[in-house]
Design goal:
It contains 1 helix and 6 strands. Strand 1 and strand 2 form a beta hairpin.
Amino acid sequence: MIKKLNPNHLKRLLNNKCDVIVYQEGLSEEGEPLTSLDLKDQKCRFVEKTKIIISPDGKKVELVGKVILLGDIAPNIKKISGGEVIVNNSKYEIYQASRPRNPDGTVYMTMLELM
């Protein structure tokens, strides 16, 4: 039988503070990206692991790590496609995001891959 994952197992691993800014499509009148989500002082798990991949358009991209946040940080946003994460006074760009689900359809965690 498949059980719902217990978020308490992940809570003890959340040992860093991070700020997350998620952008939406389009630009403001000044040419800056539009912010759809701005989270401050979130507890997260930051895993530094360098990995080089080739993006679908043929560019070489170096991923420097990932940030794991408990639950769904953006339930109203269908697709997280860009933004910034500040961890340990270092700023990273979001390359892609994933939201694994429990068998009942609820989101267990949000994982942001950083470049």
